[in-house]
What does this fold into?
Amino acid sequence: MAGFSADGFLAKVRAHLPVESRDGSPEDAMRAVEAAGRDGKSDRMERGREPVPRRHLPDLPAFCDKFLSKFPPQLRPLDVVLLHGFILEQLLGSPPGL
It folds into this structure.
């Protein structure tokens, strides 16, 4: 995306979600995501060889009600809705449907 900045993106994410950074291998990061996922949705991203910190949604229903209210309630917790409706549209300003 034109003008994308990892630091700017993380600042936007941190305004709404807990974000955790940790040292370790990609495998260590995936284990942390799996462990956190037992208590809610959790993910991580990489940009090339540089990891982007893990994001965690501990109270998924409340988050979905607040940020994804334009979607039917049964669709809000789907990963694709979280990605497109919140991250791409709201945080990165991408138009719907891209």
